[in-house]
Amino acid sequence: MEFHQLRYFVAVADEGSFSRAAARERVAQPSLSQQVQKLEFEIGQPLFDRLPRGVVLTRAGEQLLTHARRILAEVADARRVLSANGAHLTGTVSIGVIPTIAPFLLSRLTEILLGRYPGLWIEVFEETTSAILRRLQVGELDVALVSTVDPTPSIQVDVIAAEPLVVLLPASSPCAVKPRLTWRDLRKEKFLVLQDMHCLSGQVSQLCERQRLQPRIVFRGAQLETVARMVAAGVGCSIVPAMMAAADTSPGRVYRPLRDPQPTRPLCLAWNLHRHRAPQALAVADVVRKLTCGTGSVGTPADDGSAGGRDVPR
């Protein structure tokens, strides 16, 4: 039983497909399939049922998966612990960041880390929450910056801030002249949202449901920048993170806060409970906490310590 065979096995189990697993591991599919077959031969029984539309774990596969994840996590943990070098941090730190945070926080985070620790090698994975959690579970990430996360036995989630969500509007919208909006103001607006794979989509949906607002959704996008460009074109409005407003200098669109109840989303650090928290990861967490201590402007604390109430026009 070899290490890379276990890694390939876990990838197939996660993806439910040999082809997707091969793409994830950046190897040829025949090579990956051959290594999994060798693992099955050594164990003496199949690990997957090969079905027309994918693969599913057998009972033996389910039993091996728990052990394989633990082995991969412990090996990755050992590598990172051994790369630490006292107070002068060197080696590699792997960070996961969701796409609705990465564009607005990542460059500043990296700039500060490299300024403090020039010997640090930073790996970043910008992926959806589900993909980041899989990487955390198998030990591929030291720490992750996420928002809404369902609890699991192996993942610890520390809420570090509550970030306001604001309304993104075309500059030509009648609502754009108001310094603050109410939920009633949005009842006749067309909505642009992210696809369901993004946790922000679920957060917005729950907010609208609580306000008994049934938004007319006219666009579902994969990236916030695409949504923003569509808004600037006059297609409709969107509910977006305040850190996006702080970073946006583009014409044609404005950001407005909502009156009470002010919607927010959690900003969280996620960790694998079975892994040692290396100094590199703790350094990342320290910088992230300082950058998210404000109420929307990344790295800028609130004047009054409150979580909302600021106008954010552009």
Structural class: alpha/beta
Q: How widely separated are the two ends?
A: 58 Å
Helical content band: 25-40%
Number of helices: 10
Overall number of structural domains: 3
**Biggest sheet statistics:** 7 strands, mixed
N-to-C order of helices and strands = HHHEEHEHEHEEEHEHEHEEH
Total beta strand runs: 11
Give start-end ranges of low-pLDDT stretches: 295-311
Radius of gyration: 22 Å
Shape: globular
Q: Which architecture of the largest domain per CATH?
A: 3-Layer(aba) Sandwich
Q: So what's the CATH class of the largest domain?
A: Alpha Beta
At the fold tier of CATH, the topology name of the largest domain is: D-Maltodextrin-Binding Protein, domain 2
Summarize this, please?
This protein has 314 residues and is α/β, with parallel strands linked by helices. Helix content is 40%, strand content 22%.
Describe it for me?
With 314 residues, this protein is of the alpha/beta class. It contains ten helices and eleven strands. The protein has three domains: 3-81, Orthogonal Bundle (Arc Repressor Mutant, subunit A), CATH 1.10.10; 89-160 and 265-291, 3-Layer(aba) Sandwich (D-Maltodextrin-Binding Protein, domain 2), CATH 3.40.190; 163-264, D-Maltodextrin-Binding Protein, domain 2 (3-Layer(aba) Sandwich). The protein has helices spanning 3-15, 18-25, 29-43, 59-83, 102-116, 129-137, 199-210, 224-232, 242-247, 279-291; strands at residues 48-51, 54-57, 91-97, 120-126, 143-146, 155-170, 190-194, 216-221, 238-241, 253-256, 264-272. The radius of gyration is 22 Å and the shape is globular.
